[in-house]
Amino acid sequence: MAKTVPVERFTLGICYYPEQWPESMWADDFKRMKEIGFSIIRVGEFAWNLFEPEEGVYQFDLFDRAIDLAHQYGLQVIIGTPTATPPAWMTQRYPEILNVNKEGVPYRHGNRRHYNYSSPIYRDYCAKITEAMARHYADYPGVVGWQIDNELNAEGDRFYSDADDASFRVWLEGKYGSLDALNAAWGTVFWNQSYSDWSQIHLPRGTVNPHQALDEKRFISDNCISFVQVQVDIIRKLAPNQWITTNGMFPHLDNHKMTEQLLDFYSYDSYPNFTSIWNDDDRDQPLLDRIYSNYLTKTRSISPNYTIMEQQAGPGGWVTFAQSTPQPGQIRLWTYQSIAHGADMLLYFRWRTATFGTEIYWHGINDYHNQPNRRVAEVAKVGSEMARIGEAIVGSRFAAEVAILHDYDNEWDGELDVWHGPLSRESVYSWSKAMQFNHVPHDYLYINENTSLSNLTRYKVLIYPHAAILTDETAELLKQYVAGGGKLIFGARTGYKDKQGHCRMAPFPGPVAELCGITVEEFTLLTSKSKVPGLRWTDGKDESVQATMFNDILLPANDRVETVAVYDSAYYEGKPALTRNAYGEGEAYYYGAAFSLDAANALIRRLGLQPAAADQLELPQQVEIAIREKGDRRFAFLLNYSGEPAVARLLEKAEDLLEGVQLQAGDLTIEPYGVRVLALN
Amino acid sequence: MAKTVPVERFTLGICYYPEQWPESMWADDFKRMKEIGFSIIRVGEFAWNLFEPEEGVYQFDLFDRAIDLAHQYGLQVIIGTPTATPPAWMTQRYPEILNVNKEGVPYRHGNRRHYNYSSPIYRDYCAKITEAMARHYADYPGVVGWQIDNELNAEGDRFYSDADDASFRVWLEGKYGSLDALNAAWGTVFWNQSYSDWSQIHLPRGTVNPHQALDEKRFISDNCISFVQVQVDIIRKLAPNQWITTNGMFPHLDNHKMTEQLLDFYSYDSYPNFTSIWNDDDRDQPLLDRIYSNYLTKTRSISPNYTIMEQQAGPGGWVTFAQSTPQPGQIRLWTYQSIAHGADMLLYFRWRTATFGTEIYWHGINDYHNQPNRRVAEVAKVGSEMARIGEAIVGSRFAAEVAILHDYDNEWDGELDVWHGPLSRESVYSWSKAMQFNHVPHDYLYINENTSLSNLTRYKVLIYPHAAILTDETAELLKQYVAGGGKLIFGARTGYKDKQGHCRMAPFPGPVAELCGITVEEFTLLTSKSKVPGLRWTDGKDESVQATMFNDILLPANDRVETVAVYDSAYYEGKPALTRNAYGEGEAYYYGAAFSLDAANALIRRLGLQPAAADQLELPQQVEIAIREKGDRRFAFLLNYSGEPAVARLLEKAEDLLEGVQLQAGDLTIEPYGVRVLALN
Amino acid sequence: MAKTVPVERFTLGICYYPEQWPESMWADDFKRMKEIGFSIIRVGEFAWNLFEPEEGVYQFDLFDRAIDLAHQYGLQVIIGTPTATPPAWMTQRYPEILNVNKEGVPYRHGNRRHYNYSSPIYRDYCAKITEAMARHYADYPGVVGWQIDNELNAEGDRFYSDADDASFRVWLEGKYGSLDALNAAWGTVFWNQSYSDWSQIHLPRGTVNPHQALDEKRFISDNCISFVQVQVDIIRKLAPNQWITTNGMFPHLDNHKMTEQLLDFYSYDSYPNFTSIWNDDDRDQPLLDRIYSNYLTKTRSISPNYTIMEQQAGPGGWVTFAQSTPQPGQIRLWTYQSIAHGADMLLYFRWRTATFGTEIYWHGINDYHNQPNRRVAEVAKVGSEMARIGEAIVGSRFAAEVAILHDYDNEWDGELDVWHGPLSRESVYSWSKAMQFNHVPHDYLYINENTSLSNLTRYKVLIYPHAAILTDETAELLKQYVAGGGKLIFGARTGYKDKQGHCRMAPFPGPVAELCGITVEEFTLLTSKSKVPGLRWTDGKDESVQATMFNDILLPANDRVETVAVYDSAYYEGKPALTRNAYGEGEAYYYGAAFSLDAANALIRRLGLQPAAADQLELPQQVEIAIREKGDRRFAFLLNYSGEPAVARLLEKAEDLLEGVQLQAGDLTIEPYGVRVLALN
């Protein structure tokens, strides 16, 4: 069942912290929210002390008053369970609740996620506060849903406490049954690592057994999910009429599994302004804030229609780091970026900038001074626009014919393993960018043991850049996909590891060698000291592509396998670098390197992938297009990420939904950081 | 009362370690010291084991013999209390004396300042050794004064031991009275940080509550001062006829308060040769060793006439880092740099390079071989010069008409807070450099709750670059200053925080908005990825200035406020960047950015600030000028920091004090790294 | 007695891990090894759990079966004692076995060398397993020798456990006898470090007493040797007919002393492919993989004929770092590099790439797939070549007339001391490179208290770059060497420290001032900010040399001392930089700087050092030459390190041993990464 947001119309709102402001300000705040067009607020996710000021004493009056007043002003309320920040009295009394660093030093009160998910004591406290809150707020007027904790695995995605070790051992016993099985799976005969007692096993601290490290990530994910489940089970039972979600996408958590098993839908916190600090403008053609389209694409792979629980509302930063201020139009642009990719509910973070604490520079739409400002005006414009089109677009789905295959095992294994992880990160980035710039909408498809052929056949083309870990089952599925007419593209290092991360005693690419029609004769990793060879195309075309990071030297199995390109230098000059194998109704490509932007561009051309709405629109590179479809309606979101006006070309007439006008064919200007939403015919 | 050095004539001397050399060498050492022109030595500051080889057993014979012999050779003696390096037997017996690092790991014996200031046991040991020494050396022939500890807060300016936590809690209780007040001051409702018991509170370890972090620095400073006070109280009582000082300027210590409350005068350790490793020659116009004039200016703000307790005497370094050797003339040049800014007593560090230990490369004026060398000759030249002019210059005061305002709260808050701290550091550097190169002498004026209007009105111009924390009281004082005819210059980020570091719910610049005649409409921090806008001057002049680091977009309150310059690019192109507001008899400038060198230069020109002694001298950029005045006498120190001869122009006749000749108007050559001291008319 | 490999013919082999593969694969593995030309394997060094699966239960069946089968296929066996990786059950039961980091945090099971050498419990366990193995494998058919532990001090060359502190104190008591002597030696009067009880002393943790730090390294070395001795004594007694060695060269271990006292010969692990990651190609003329000739030269200084226990067999790397793949020919080239410098036995690492564990990317000659590949073919070529020439070359010795003097005290002292350590590293590198490129073979001569004049007089020229620590005894030996006709070259910073690292109270260069005929008048370290002066040659020749890193300004003692070059700039322009003093029959050079490549080149020319076999060969720079001599036979190894063919010139006829042909005078082409072995007349 698709995990989508249960709303009738697009829902706009904001995060609010009544506990941080004088109660006398609340009414004016809610009144102005409503005027802007907000209909929902999120509260409570860092307020444990207010709900339980001392152990076992629960109180809800402050939040009751705030929620009542909000409701009175027509606002719905999402309540966050406050488990991301346990009270000081609790961690002081039970230090085993704390997470510790790799050296064994406990984290301190004063941050977030300084606790571990494993402590039975903490889980018990969490259950009790959740139960008290769920009892109190089930069917409470205005309260529509729950956010579990906040940004799970943010600020901490590794765990080293004693409780975690204990929990890891239980998880391992459940998985392996015996130490013999574990020793075999972890290859402990290597370097004399064999365990003769479960108590000898720890989460890895500075050790580099890759199989143990992979299980570490799997455990952290499962452990986090079971931590969430404690709360979900309670809310489901006590407050069955309210929905449950959680926000954010952080390492070492299988958000797909968590959402599938526990949540009604998934939420994301979108802060594209981080690119004002950490962007990629050292590259030829930077993605800058468009990189967030990539994250939203991942979000959509979990919930086709999702919520943005926190949308950037101004410059962000703590006292210790700083973003610059979004330029005029960018906050609205980023809002539409979220919507274009599938948001049906969106809350800004936050109403007013905090005047104290770590985040005095994480600016809300209102400034400290609480006077009118540009950001409020920009958000109010979105509010009025959504009042007009929010009902039309809700529930429409993003359309794509291409998907990048992705899976958690390779992501987690590749974190430690520099022989394939960096390749995947580079190639996914290149493919995303190439498809962005070529206006080819794409999805992510996360593949796991539950993936079915029908999940794949929705796409004409699949790209699986560097699936080092590739099970026989997945290989079989991919063969069926190609046999049935699909096009599939692999990169270097495919298929040499099994599920445990052991290397197969077979020529690369292991279980897809037959599908690809090649084996890997030799290979070399390119270090920072290496000269990078290029490609020479066998059709003689002059298309410059660098074969970056890794070079597999391919050996076609037979004459029917087409060598599309060979290496143009190095000791393997002239050897096949890119091959194509017709297989059943489809075809499989194998590329022996990481995918540079040039390589992805070349493949897009050679595969004949077309821009979205190519019959109706011609777009410049700086504009992203996203199509959302509902029934026979197609909404085209055109997003101009540049500070200059962009000129698109409309090839046939269309309706401009935001302006409420009918457009004729011809030039179509999109203002700097501007947005158009067209209803296509 | 001015905290100045109580000497009748300029006093030259050196640091000496009798315990590190065979007693047979002492007499020759003292004899040669006297020949050079030294009249004072400092001893004892790292010799606790020699004073107290086992607990409670005090002995002074070695130092008595050394002091007696020195005195016999006509040398006075300063004694250092040895508390910077506790004996091994003490920290072994009472490990709670040790400071610990952020992870909780105790520091080890073998360094300096591996202890904490809080341990009651250590304070007791310090009191006892101080008492024993004070009893013994009070009125001891030759002993004139005391140095408390050594370079307080050097090697360690953060504290994490249990004793420190305990002491911090006592300090907080004294300050806040109740946990409610503390929770409010620290904004602990943010992220659920509220404390329900004093014992839950620690000095911050990896947490980023800015209000807690500010109190941490205030506590460290107060705690250090109270540590010093233990010793001072004892010496004042037992040795009332000897003066007390301490040396060095290190982080997290309010040297002004400490000197005001406890000391007779302040001392500084000047090592300009560090610029041979860590200089700023990556800048267009580097300050290099002239940066030490900046530190001496700060020293002078504490004691108008100060002591240099350690003056660079050769290449410095430990075994783990290294300076190059001062070039011929530089040791003398740096000596005069210290004198020009206000030194009335100066000791070199050290007599002879140690042949063992961590500092075998911290070269004294004598080499290991103890033969005549260039450095001894250079210092002897200073000795003979001071013999001639030391009585004339003593007690004269540095003259300046401009001051940079500075305060500890903003310095400490800005350490963590990247939204204003880096701006202040950059702007103070730029202003110092601009005034150096334009030959405009300046002071630092540290502002606090005791600052009076008369402290300010000594200056025609005050520059307060980025006073993020600005109390209403200080704002009122600044208004009075301007109303009375002063010129005052603010930079970006002024006035938005209160004393606790909370952000005011008012438009920037808060309490000086009326004084400046503007509010800040919008702002943006410039990250390393940002394009920096420039200024366009409304008077049409072509003067290139980059508006660096931060841009406040200003909104003049009315037509009477002059917009001096606007931004020349970015989305706020054409908006006011620099304004001037006539206020009473004076005027207030607000500049929306950090002050680059170009900005400071432009303002110096526009404010009409004149070079010192402009009627008498024309100076090239590489020469610093400092004027010391006493009664109607004016001594001009001309310091040539370059390795080439510098040619100044003397506009009227003057006396060359060092050469003892009368100079006529005309060209005046200053040799490479050379110095001239002129008596101006 | 020369510690050389006791073999009759060159012996080729490989490292093998039977425990990591199905027993069914063994026979095929051994069969193919034999076909390649291998005659020896190494096993067992990481297999403690297999030998002792629980405490006190010893079992050998798996290895017995493997060894029996190997022997059956004609392979000899080296057994590694498994003490580099203690079992989990052991470190869990006795955590005091673990080494801890500087912060006191114990290392974890799962790596190598996470234990300390000091724990009596661990030494006891090691003794027991060694005894059990020695009893079992003494005179076991096929077993010829032992490797103690594995790569001593790799992965950990600092020790901080309680056991280490205790052992350090015992070592210190043995060395100094009394605390007074220790306090004097460590100069603890400096900074009040004096110890009044042995228990106050620790291995240095973040402290920088240079004398303590030097003793730390001496202790670590002695402690490691005594750890090895426990095992050696047992094997000598129980298995007197098998030889003993160990492999690798890592910091803080006097391999010379260890080999002299305990081993039959020394072994090295050669991985030149590390230069694909960490090479020096940022230099003008990089050494790249030729740097390994330098390491082999050091190896040869321990054992004139040594074993390579692990020779690179493919790309190396862990999951966390990666080398690129050796290019065709490089594995063979590196094999001959090892042989050319003195190997008489060589084992590749490893037979087949591990399919699990940390080292799945440390490629053996066989791939995971176990099919024929390029690397196996390349190694088989070596096998067939050695079958032909292995008997001829065995026992022949590398010939050199020049040596670089080296000693552990300066190496260890210079690790911490930036005032001489970096100079030595730079100068040794420059000299090695200059001699490589000029085809002047050289040795390392490690000098210590047992070095005799006859060790020195084997060489015409000795270079002792920066002997900061220089005892009177060594100085005397050097004087005798020069007096007898030797040429000796010193660099800056010579002779100012005594054996304890105290600075001498005498002009530099202390005990060799008379030999050199100069003293150092002044000096300066050049920092990264300094302008580097050049040399001006007094004979007027135009030869460009930069006087890098440090400049001693020399003062000749008399007119007979020749000033060869002076500084060409800086304040000491024109002062002597390089001097030559005739002394007895020889001459001593003193150079006041570090030796750049240009300086070494200039000295090679001025000393008239000739290329090897200059009468018979002319070689291009990219080719290394090494001569091995036996009786009247001279074997010239020509190694082409470039990827292009190299053309040498043969001046008279010679025999090409590998090709088995007679060569006439004329051009001689060496293929890319190719090797020639010539029998010279």
Task: Report on the architecture of this protein.
Chains A, B, C: It holds the Pfam family Glyco_hydro_42M. Chains A, B, C: It catalyses: Hydrolysis of terminal non-reducing beta-D-galactose residues in beta-D-galactosides. Chains A, B, C: Belongs to the glycosyl hydrolase 42 family. Chain A is of the alpha/beta class and about 675 residues long. Chain A folds into three domains: about 10-160 and about 215-395, Alpha-Beta Barrel (TIM Barrel), CATH 3.20.20.80; about 400-605, Class I glutamine amidotransferase (GATase) domain (Rossmann fold, 3-Layer(aba) Sandwich), CATH 3.40.50; about 615-680, Immunoglobulin-like, CATH 2.60.40. Helix content of chain A is about 30%, strand content about 20%. The first copy, chain A, has 18 helices and 29 strands. In chain A, the strands form six sheets. An eight-stranded parallel sheet of chain A has the order 5-4-3-2-1-10-7-6. In chain A, helix 14 (about 420-435) packs across helix 18. The longest helix of chain A has 29 residues, at about 210-240. The mean pLDDT of chain A is about 95.
